[in-house]
Specification:
Blueprint (H helix, E strand, L loop, with lengths): L22 H4 L1 E4 L2 H6 L1 E4 L29 E4 L2 E10 L5 H26 L17 E2 L7 H12 L7 E6 L3 H6 L4 E3 L2 E3 L5 E5 L16 E8 L1 E5 L10 H4 L6 E14 L5 E6 L14
Parallel strand pairs: 1-11, 5-13, 6-9
Antiparallel strand pairs: 2-3, 4-12, 6-10, 7-8, 10-13, 11-12
Length: about 290
């Protein structure tokens, strides 16, 4: 519990800055419906994959066949809750102030928590879509050393499967190497490669790769997915109780909770991964990308 110093002037806290670059910048953040909160979500990914081919329409060709392709599977995920609970003495803080304090704590840290779930999942909720446990992830092996070669190989492999810009997910420890390689270009609040791929630098992300495989020394894993969307509940959907009704009167303490419901998914089933060296600049001493 904070104790007020009686001879000091109580002033407003210093102003915060914008939230750091991360998943909430690289993704589109949309409101959830009540049904999403209760049951999760799913959608068809009809535009995914490369299902085109050349067709011979010359005269004299006997009934050329156009190859049929199977329909796309559903992509789905379950919601998860992010919360913070604040206990503090009632002296010097009003109910509205303590409620705002809990909300501020939630806003400051929820992006990191959502990044962590998107990377590692939740053990108690196996149907929450996540990168480490995704089935069918393709590992890419670059043909040259350095972070630039790794990300270039990742994008090249991914864009064989789709024409739409995707999202690269990587821990912030790779920032220096990606910046040196020229892969972090601010564009209207989003970090992008020259191809337009959104780059999500997440300090909530892990460094392990597919099936929780640890990277080689001096490397981190990076995943590339199709465009990522985050759904978030509104304040009206998850109303917080009046602090005056839930305070601990035996100890004269506020006891306030702030919480939101989240879900996150990428638009197509294809996921690719590569190991990225974190040394910057890349030198002859930089380790080669493991095969």
């Amino acid at each position: 519990m904070a104790v007020l110093q009686p001879n000091r002037e109580l002033i407003a806290p210093p102003p915060t800055q914008r939230l750091r670059y991360g998943l909430f910048n690289a993704a589109t953040v949309l409101p959830m419906t009540d049904r999403m909160i209760g049951n999760g979500l799913q959608f068809y990914a009809d535009h995914c994959g490369d299902h085109t081919e050349l067709y011979n329409q010359e005269c004299g060709v006997d009934s050329p066949v156009k190859t049929p392709h199977e329909g796309t599977e559903l992509i789905g995920t379950d919601p998860f809750w992010v919360e913070t609970r604040l206990r503090c003495g009632t002296v010097g803080r009003t109910a509205d102030e303590i409620k705002a304090a809990a909300q501020a704590r939630l806003v400051a840290s929820e992006q990191r928590r959502v990044e962590n779930v998107l990377w590692n999942g939740i053990a108690a909720q196996p149907d929450v879509l996540n990168l480490v446990n995704n089935v069918g992830t393709t590992t890419v092996v670059p043909t040259a050393p350095g972070a630039g070669a790794a990300i270039s190989a990742l994008e090249n492999a991914f864009y064989q499967m789709t024409g739409y810009v995707g999202t690269i997910h990587v821990n912030t420890v790779a920032e220096g190497a990606l910046e040196y390689a020229g892969f972090l270009n601010p564009d209207a609040g989003v970090l992008r490669t020259r191809k337009g791929t959104a780059v999500s630098l997440g300090d909530g992300y892990g460094i392990n790769g597919p099936e929780d495989e640890a990277p080689a020394a001096g490397f981190v894993w990076a995943f590339m997915t199709s465009y990522t969307t985050v759904w978030r509940s509104t304040d009206a959907q998850i109303p917080q109780p009046d602090p005056r009704r839930v305070m601990d009167r035996t100890l004269n303490q506020w006891d306030v909770v702030a919480e939101r419901v989240y879900a996150a998914a990428w638009a197509c089933p294809e996921v690719m991964a590569v190991q990225v060296p974190i040394a910057a600049p890349a030198t002859a001493a930089t380790p080669a990308v493991p095969a």
